[in-house]
Write a structure and sequence with these properties.
By secondary structure, the protein is mainly α. It is 59% helix and 5% strand. It has 13 helices and four strands.
Length: 322
């Protein structure tokens, strides 16, 4: 009976993994809009840092000296360059979703491998990989390959690649290199570098000389990536610290929020609320009564707290850590 039960559960796991990967494949290959990184990759091939062709809209682009730029860091477009060149040679457009599906599958595989290294069972490793990819907020970006989502999927793939290296061979140069790549994808996500540095300085064993060499190997590739980022900004806007966010073409409500400062600490309380606690919004039949209509609740477009989207994370508080 136990053998039959295990076989049944294993079948269910495989079924749901295949099901969600199939849905991911279908949606990523179906989405055609908001392909800014692919258009920018085509510009890079022509030696330009601004859009040579108009994407679906100019929304979220930065208009500067008569040209439209993409404020987000450039690595996703750089990654797309060989695919864009190949498809262009056949007169076809390379959509971001063609690559995004494989990156999502790569995230699933990396989480499974990381869990195995951390001594989880094969069954639990599948659970954590499935939980993150298809039962967390990641699913919102994994299934829909618009540019904003695509850059986050690239960043998440690189983050888990860095974590895989960290729990595995822990080669200093690769940790620094991957952190640099993350910087050139979603800049703030590169703060994972702090984890690697703190671990090296306060946890890893070794004398001062050995740690200094490892520190040098981590910092140098990250520093080179930072310099590349500064040069990229300078060539576009004449300012190494200007990414284009201050001149973005955005809706009025977002422009009002930006008026408080792009990196102002005033945004922190609101961001914490929407990240952790923000509940679903009720859908009313009219503007007066409290009578609900189907489907009764809707996600808050500003954010939905992870206690609602990923309740399984509560389990983390009951795990015994060394």
């Amino acid at each position: 009976m136990n053998i039959q039960k295990k076989g049944y559960l294993f079948f269910l796991k495989i079924f749901f993994v295949v099901l969600f990967l199939t849905v991911t494949l279908f949606l990523n290959f179906s989405v055609k809009g908001e392909q800014q990184f692919s258009y920018l990759a085509k510009s890079f091939v022509q030696g330009k840092l601004y859009f040579l062709e108009k994407p679906l809209t100019w929304g979220d682009t930065a208009f500067f000296e008569g040209k439209y730029y993409w404020p987000l860091p450039p690595l996703p477009s750089i990654v797309l360059i060989p695919f864009v060149i190949i498809f262009d040679s056949f007169g076809k457009f390379f959509y971001q979703g063609y690559l995004q599906f494989f990156l999502v599958a790569g995230v699933f595989f990396l989480i499974y491998k990381i869990a195995k290294i951390l001594k989880y069972t094969k069954s639990d490793s599948y659970f954590w990989a499935f939980a993150f990819c298809f039962s967390s907020t990641f699913i919102g970006v994994a299934l829909w390959s618009w540019s904003w989502n695509f850059s986050q999927v690239v960043a998440v793939f690189l983050l888990f690649l860095a974590i895989y290296e960290f729990v595995g061979r822990r080669r200093s140069f690769y940790l620094g290199l991957l952190s640099g790549f993350i910087l050139l994808t979603r800049s703030l996500s590169s703060l994972i570098l702090v984890l690697f540095l703190l671990n090296l300085l306060f946890v890893e064993k070794g004398n001062l000389g050995e740690k200094s060499i490892k520190l040098f190997k981590i910092v140098i590739p990250f520093f080179i990536s930072l310099m590349i980022f500064f040069v990229y900004n300078s060539l576009r806007f004449g300012n190494i610290f200007e990414m284009g966010y201050s001149m973005q073409n955005i809706p009025e409500v977002s422009e009002k929020a930006r008026s408080y400062g792009v990196f102002s600490l005033l945004h922190v309380p609101g961001n914490i609320y929407y990240f952790l606690l923000s509940p679903p919004i009720p859908i009313f039949r009219d503007g007066l009564s409290a009578v609900l209509k189907f489907p009764y609740i809707s996600a808050n477009p500003w954010g939905l707290g992870i206690i609602f989207t990923s309740p399984y994370l509560i389990y983390l508080f009951f795990i015994e850590y060394k």
